[in-house]
Prior knowledge:
This protein is of the alpha+beta class. Helix content is 17%, strand content 46%.
Amino acid sequence: xxxxxxxxxxxxxxxxxxxxxxxxxxxxxxxxxxxxxxxxxxxxxxxxxxxxxxxxxxxxxxxxxxxxxxxxxxxxxxxxxxxxxxxxxxxxxxxxxxxxxxxxxxxxxxxxxxxxxxxxxxxxxxxxxxxxxxxxxxxxxxxxxxxxxxxxxxxxxxxxxxxxxxxxxxxxxxxxxxxxxxxxxxxxxxxxxxxxxxxxx
Length: 201
């Protein structure tokens, strides 16, 4: 009799539907965020990379998915914080490129649409607003998720040709390749790296 009751109990428990899985919450960690860029010089398009040290954000909120954290994000990058680990070059970039742009003390943007693997971002550069598509990559960890937003920009889309010419003139020798030609490309690759804190019940 006891065996029959035990079997009945096991069967009843096994047939129960499992409850909904507990959802994790994701939260922005400002200390983890970096904005890096790669510009290109020489005819053969050699990359030169740097970053920005001062970034401010608004509209970030804890959410049930990593991408939802950024749905209402807006940000501001201070161009005076440009950092290539070469102070003399940083000063030239700021003075001869960024300060030649309208509203050149900062670059601004806001997310207008976001999905799992891409985000549409409205960028404001040189007083010009243009949409840009950022690819999203994420790497899930035990207590955090690393997220990267990447985009390839053409600064001519923002009317920055005179600023490009200004910087290339100042850095003419440094931008002269083996073919004897001085070249600074209008293309720039942007990567935004950040880490989200993950809290699961």
